[in-house]
Each structure stands twice: as C-alpha cells, then as structure tokens.
Amino acid sequence: MDPRRTARTVSDPKVRQVGFFTPPPDHAISDPPRHHDPIQSPSQSSPPVNDRSPSDSSLSPVMIPPPRHHSDALLRTALQATSPTKPFSPSTRTVMIPPENKDLRSPGRKVVYGKSPSSFSGVKASSVPASELTTVSVVNLALGISGKILTAEEAGGASVEVQNDRRASSKPLKEKTSKAERRALQEAQRAAKAAAKAEGSKASSSASKVVTSENTKPIKATKPSSQKNDGSQVAASDKKGGDRAPEKDRKKDAPHPRMQYDDTSRVEKAKKRAVVKQTEARNRVELFRHLPQYEHGTQLPDLETKFFELDPMHPALYKVGLQYLSGDIYGGNARCIAMLQAFKEAIKDYSTPPEKTLIRDLTARISSYVSFLIECRPLSISMGNAIKFLKSRIAKLPLALSESEAKTTLMLDIDRFINEKIILADKVIVEHAVTKISDGDVLLTYGASSAVEMILLHAHELGKEFRVVVVDSHPKLEGQLLLRRLVRKGLSCTYTHVNAVSYIMHEVTRVFLGASSVLSNGTVYSRVGTACVAMVAHAFRVPVLVCCEAYKFHERVQLDSICSNELGNPDAISKVHGREEINYLDGLVNCENLQLLNLIYDATPSDYVSMVITDYGMVPPTSVPVIVREYRREHLWS
Amino acid sequence: MDAMAEFVVGNIVRRVLYIIREEDLSLTTAAMVGLNLSAVSDDEDDADRDDQPVLSATAIATASRNALHPPSLQTLLEDVPDSAAVQHTSSSGRDSEGKSKSADKSSRNRKLKHDVVEAMNELIQDVSTCHEPIVVRVEHIHQKYLFLEVILTFGSSRTVLQFLCVAKERKRSFLVLVAEGAPRYQGHLLAKELVTRGLQTTLITGSAVFAMISRVNMVIVGAYAVLANGGVIAPVGLNMVALAAQKYVVPFVVLAGSHKLCPLYPHNPEVLLNELRCPSELLDFGEFSDCLDFGSGIGASLLNVVNPTFDYVPPKLVSLFITDILWSISALLIQCGDAMHSPVSAITVSH
C-alpha cells in the first residue's frame, strides 16, 4: 500500500497516447454499459476511466490511433469491467489480483513496462486459484475471441520474476529433453488449448503428453523470432493445471535465445539432423564464433544433385532454398514472399498421413522446411515473423474443417498476409514518404531497398524534381542494380561508394534508408554500411528516414552488430568483381594469420534515425515497440 | 606512396627554398665582413670602372640590404654566376655591381650551391627516415593499454606498417583489423604485408567499420597531409572512421612525418583540397550503356559517378598526432609547422 502512488490519474488505456497530450478533464468514473460479466469485481475502484472512444477526434497526429477492430472493441468493453487496463498490455494480467490490491495496480501501470504491476503483491498473486482462470476463459468464449490471446490474462497471478525463478530452477532438470520434443510439446499444447477452449476442459495436459510421444521428428532450433521460448516449455511441462499455458504465452513475448554456435555440443547435435552438409569455414573470426561460418559454394552442387531424391522436402521449398543459397533472391521482402509462395505450394500438395491430425503434422512439416531453409541461409527477421504468423494460423484452424477446407483457408491466409503486410504496406509507405520529398531535393540512399526504390519511382512519376545519390559498397554492389532501374526510368543519379559518403553528404538534403527490421529499442537492423551512412548524415545534420513495413518489426533488442548477425562468404572480400587487378590476396587465403570478415547486417542506433515510415504511419523510432505491442497480436496473428 | 598530390610536394619545395635562403643568408653575413676588402680588390681588378668608390659603397649597401631583408628569388636568381646572363639584365646598377662582384660572386655561389645541396641531402635523409622516430613511440602507447588490443587501420600506409611491425617485435599482443579502402583496395596490400610478417589480421569491408568499432581499442592511420589547423587530409573514408571513433570514444591516432605539415588552412576542404579519380574504378566504362542513351544528349547527364581521393578529418576528431619532431597534440603541431616555413614566399603552389 503505497500512499504516494494513488494520486496519479490514469487515462483510458484503450487510447494509448504516445505523443504529447493534455490530460483530459477528469471524467467521472462512469461505467459505460457493459456486458454482464461474471467477473464483476466487487469494489470497482478502478481509476478514473476516460470514456474516450477510439474515434475521439482529439487525437493528435502524433498518437497512434488504437486498432479499430470490431472484436477488439467488444473485447475491450468486456474486459473494461474486469480490468481497467487495455487487453494487450502486460499489465492486464492484473485481472486476477484480489480486489483489494487494485488501487496499487493502476498507478503502477504506467511505471512498469513488461512486468505485471502485481509485483507489488507478487507473492500473494501467485497463489491465484485456477478457478478464476476458468471464468475468464468463459467470458472470452462468449466473445468468440481466440483463447490464446487471453491466456495472457489468465496468467495474471504470477509475476514475471516468480516465473523466472521457477523456470530457472526447472531448467537443469529438463536439459535432457531435446528441442524437438519440447517444441512439439508446446505446439501440441497450443493446439490442445484451442481444443480446450472449445470444450472448456482442463484436460490439455494429458492430451499434450500423448502428442509428445508421437511426434519425434527432429527439428533444429536456431531461429530467433519464429520459435517459442524453450525455457517456457521446460517450466510448463513441469507445472500442472492451467498455470502452464498462461506462463508460456507470456514468455512468448520474450524472444527466444538464439542458438550460439560456439556451444559445440549443440552444434554437433544440429549437424546430425542437417539436410545440407556444411563444412566449417577456415579462418573463423574469433569474435564471431557464436555465428555460423560455413564454406560457401560447396553446398550448391551437392544439393542440386539431391533435388529429386529428397522425399520429405517439397520441390518448391527446395528450389527456394537453392535460390537463397546462390544469392538469386535477396532482400527481406523478396525472400519472405518467395518462402510464403513455396509454403503455399507445399500446403497445396500436402495430405495428412493417417492417424495424425492435420494441425500437428502440418506444423511439424513446416518446421522441417524452415530448418532446411535456415541451412541454406539464416532466416531474415521478416521471414521469421511470417513463419510465426503461418504457424499461428495453422494452430488456430478449427478442428471441424475438412482437410481441403483447411488447406484453402491456409492458402488464403497466406495470400492475405502477402497482400496486406507487404504489398499494401508498401503502397502506404510510398504514399507517406512522397510527402517528404520536395522539389530540388537531393536524396541519398544506400544499397538496394525495395521500399526506397518504389518511393523514388513514385515521386518521379508525380513529377517532383529531385536528384538521387546512390551509395554502394563492396562486395555486394547492390546499389548498381538500383541505379540501373532508376536511370532507366529517367531519374538523374549520382553513384558513389560508401567511403565517399562524407564527401557527398554536404549536398544531400534527405537520406532514405531501407531496413531488414527495426528492433524494440529503435535500432535499425539493416544491410552493413547503413550505420555508417546514418552516422555521417547525423553529423551533417541531414534527416534520416527509414522505410520499413510493420511486419518486419521485432520485439527483440540488440545493442551492437556483433551479438547477432550473418556472415557471408569471406572469399567475396578478397576478390573484387570486375577488377581482376586487385589480386593482392591471392594465395594468402590459407594463411592462418589472415581472417576475412564479411558481415551482412549491422545495427544502427536509434539516435541517428529521425523517423521511421511504416504502414502505420510516420513514427519516431521509439514508437516501434508500441506498434509491436499494440498491433502485432491481433493483426498479425488473429 | 603514390599520389601524395600537391601537399607534400609543396611542402618540400617550400623547405628547399627555405634552405636556399638560409644558406644564402649565412653566406652573406659572412661575406659582409670581408666585403670591404673585396670591394677594394674589385676596384683594382676592373680598371675600366670610373665610379669605383661609389660602387664599393653601393656594393656594401646592397650587401647589407640583402642581409637585412630576406632576398627575393629574383635577386638570387640574378646572382647566378653566368656572365652572359648578367650582361643582358636591365638593371644598370645591379649589372655593374654584378660584373664587379662576379669574380667573388662565382666563388660565393659555388659555395652556396654546395651548402644548399648538402642541406637538401639532409632533407632527403630526414624524409626517408621519418619513420624511425615515429615508430619508436609505439612502446609508449602499448604500455598503457590492455594486453590484447584490437587496432583498426584503414587503407595502406608505410608508416603504419612499420609502426605495427615494431610493436610486434616488442612482443605486444594485438589483432589488427584492416578496412579495405575501396575503390583502390589498399587495405588488401596492407593486410598482405602484415600477414607475411606474422601479425594477426582481419580484413573487413569499409562499410563494416561502424559495426566493428565498438570492439576496437585504437584506430591508427596514416595521413596524406596535416593542415595548419590540425586537420588531416587522409584517404577517402577516414572521416567516417573518425566519426565512428568519436561516437565510441576510441582514440584516433594519426601518424605523419613532419614533411606532411602544410601551412594551409582548409576552406571547404572536401572540394578544394580534393581530387576526383577516374569513375571507372567504380563503374566500368560502358557498363551502363544499355540503359543510358548517350546519343540523345540528355543520357549522359543522368548518371554522374563521383570518386574522390581524399577526405578531410577535422582536428577535433583526432586524438593524437605522432610525428618525428614532436610527440604532440594538434596545437603544438601548428606552431611547429609555422616555424618551419618562411612566412614570405614568392612562389605559391597552386592546387
């Protein structure tokens, strides 16, 4: 009971105000007509609730308007009674806290991010009986909302710290369980939970245990964004009852710790399951031992010969994998679309084996495809998010659907994803961005970003007069392809290399950059060299605008470019394409003193970025975690 | 190092002029003492002179004037012992003077030439061995820092190469990250040299500098020229490295021989003190001929390829200069540079 904290007013959380706003006049605590709710807290001592509807006109342009999803509105109104907080904020887990602690909850809500404010009453909260969880699920059923999202609410009892302790303690016991089994367990649990919601029973634990024994297909776990937290499964499998499911879902918010390649035991295990035989590169750079460094160019002929032999692998997937390996397809959007199209093909040709359910088997099949793709080339963040989406769609398939209906549904879902998240998103980004280009501008861009290219071409079509500076870098020389396309359309361009960016920057008025992803601390994860360009632009006081579709945002955080990156072919550095006279390093590649480092990505700190242009609008880099939090769950995975 | 461009050449020319003036000055002061005697002897030698006593006075006056004011190159060149040339000059007073003094002038000029050549030999010696005093400093740096260091360098510099080799000899343990300097890829050369001398080297692309700078302990680079305000003219790309080093507070050390100090102040240095190289290093000739219509007249102006050679690094980004004269920071360096060059010079090197 902290008397200082009760004095703060809290505005309506369904309008998440991210910009500058004036505190509203104190609305009386008036309950809008709500659905009759079994969980009517006796002392509705909720803090002053703003009755602002989502369509409040007083929203300033800086604010991100709340999602207008119909079902969300219903959901919100229902949960309004149960908890004063927005459904998807972490603090909604307070729903389960015994009423007398409610006043503590509200003031703390704004202060604590990512943790349940019930940390004030953490110990007490963990003893929430399971009966309360059932009632919430009933409420949710009434609204027809998928149970998965709201299981986050069920977890209201336990604070995150308590979770961590439990997880940590149980982890050493469970190391023996292989990743494959744990993932299968988790997916089965998810599927089973969907089933459990339909039936309203809590027998999921038994069902999931059955599934574990069935599904033993080995799966390599390396993707950062598409996999669920293994630790959560570990803890989950220990616990009994409903606690397991809610903890796991909350831990899904925390990104999965990636496989570190300097852990030899895991690397060995992974190698055994691998489809593509990789030989480790010589002269591995010590600093990057935690990333896979393989010989390039050796797998391609090997895989090509195996094209017709690999039964478990669908040929479309195989083709895409080979295209990644050879570098024919590159760029976040292109790779993602190619992968999804290949998945569509695979789903179309898929037929459920006897005695298996479609959901679980298809999920396992997709996971194996994904691990093959990883071996060809590590996943980009956009691909990881797309895979997450696909798996969640599969898991949410109603069991009543026939196989063909399920398949068509999935294929339609994939189409919708590509259309909405990539193609339409790009259109919206272009619309926003061309407003930032005026006549007489000199725009600088780095590398070849599909979004930036579209912006420049569209602005040129609109008749704006501007010049483009294309900055390129060795060894990829992607800028030349962009340059070619721009010059063909008649834009006047200047071409230079990244070392000369300080020379050219004093003429530049704006910098447009593309991104592979924007992380939760505002860091832009993009092609190597982007950070240099952004830094020099910042030094010359030139605004930097990053164009990135919202589906590429990720909740993980990265401080520098070393903890997570991709390493390319080291031989590409020693040879210069098109200039054979640069052959100083011939014959030296086998020397153990020489290492060649070919980074693919780097992380640009958020202070160099002025604005991020997404399909949700033009936002500062600090708004990215807000978009991830507010929009990701319902738009991406519902 | 090729393509050191005008800066160092200009510096060396200035120093040579300075040497000539200095030698001449020292000779003239010596000659003033014995001038009276020589004037008298001149009178005796040249019997056809009517105004010998006057000449001797003017001779002394001229000599003293020469001694007091720094002579312009004009006078020096005119005093070159060539009797034929002397006859053709227009200035009468000087002419007759020159003729009268030609005898001792020729001996004096011979001595001047000899001294100048000697001094120039010393200068050559200095320049070619400028590395030695610089590389000696390596122990001072390494003693202060951690055991395993990561050093970033850029492009190729002989001074840096020798510096690192000496450091290795002194048993310092470090790892060198070499950024290849596109488009000349000098970094490849440096990496090869280092590897053959047994140093742990990692070659990275220029674009990866920002990504790696957080793990670097020190940046050591060479310079093409050091300007009078402490700014550095360096291979293109070093401004980017310097900015990154400033952000991560990594010491940025510049190694430069004293012959690279210029008495120039940079005004718009990126443009005025720069040189654009051939664009074919970036884009091959004819590579874009399929999408550019050069015949129409507008096609060629659509695409512009920029390939600068140099970059200007402002003095506030440089932590330390190491030269062969002083181990000093920028401010001292400026004074040192000023002292070396004569403030008046009739010849300016054009850029």
From TrEMBL, chain A:
Question: What Gene Ontology terms describe where this protein resides (cellular component)?
Answer: cytosol
Q: Which domain of life is it from?
A: Eukaryota
Biased-composition ranges for Low complexity?
39-48, 186-209
| Location in or out of the cell | Cytoplasm, Cytosol
- Molecular function terms, GO-annotated: translation initiation factor activity
Chain residue ranges for the region called Disordered: 1-127, 152-273
Q: What is its main location?
A: cytoplasm
Give the compositionally biased regions (Polar residues).
Answer: 79-94, 223-235
* Keywords, ordered alphabetically: Cytoplasm, Initiation factor, Protein biosynthesis
Q: Return the Basic and acidic residues bias intervals.
A: 1-15, 28-38, 163-185, 237-268
* Quaternary organization: Component of the translation initiation factor 2B (eIF2B) complex which is a heterodecamer of two sets of five different subunits: alpha, beta, gamma, delta and epsilon. Subunits alpha, beta and delta comprise a regulatory subcomplex and subunits epsilon and gamma comprise a catalytic subcomplex. Within the complex, the hexameric regulatory complex resides at the center, with the two heterodimeric catalytic subcomplexes bound on opposite sides.
Name the family. Belongs to the eIF-2B alpha/beta/delta subunits family.
Q: Which PANTHER family match?
A: TRANSLATION INITIATION FACTOR EIF-2B, TRANSLATION INITIATION FACTOR EIF-2B SUBUNIT DELTA
Q: What name is this protein filed under? A: Translation initiation factor eIF2B subunit delta
TrEMBL record, chain B:
> What keywords would UniProt list here?
Cytoplasm, Initiation factor, Protein biosynthesis
The protein's matches in Pfam families, at most eight in alphabetical order, are given as: IF-2B
**Where does the source fall among the domains of life?**
Eukaryota
What ranges does the record list as Basic and acidic residues composition bias?
94-107
Instruction: Name the InterPro entries for this protein.
Output: eIF2B_beta_subunit, IF-2B-related, IF_2B-like_C, NagB/RpiA_transferase-like
What are its GO cellular component terms? cytosol; eukaryotic translation initiation factor 2B complex
The terms under GO molecular function for this entry are: guanyl-nucleotide exchange factor activity; translation initiation factor activity
**Region annotated Disordered, chain positions:** 84-111
Q: Where in the cell is it found?
A: Cytoplasm, Cytosol
PANTHER family listed in its UniProt record: TRANSLATION INITIATION FACTOR EIF-2B SUBUNIT BETA
Family, per entry? Belongs to the eIF-2B alpha/beta/delta subunits family.
Quaternary organization? Component of the translation initiation factor 2B (eIF2B) complex which is a heterodecamer of two sets of five different subunits: alpha, beta, gamma, delta and epsilon. Subunits alpha, beta and delta comprise a regulatory subcomplex and subunits epsilon and gamma comprise a catalytic subcomplex. Within the complex, the hexameric regulatory complex resides at the center, with the two heterodimeric catalytic subcomplexes bound on opposite sides.
User: Which protein is depicted?
Assistant: Translation initiation factor eIF2B subunit beta
Q: What is the lineage of its organism?
A: Eukaryota, Viridiplantae, Streptophyta, Embryophyta, Tracheophyta
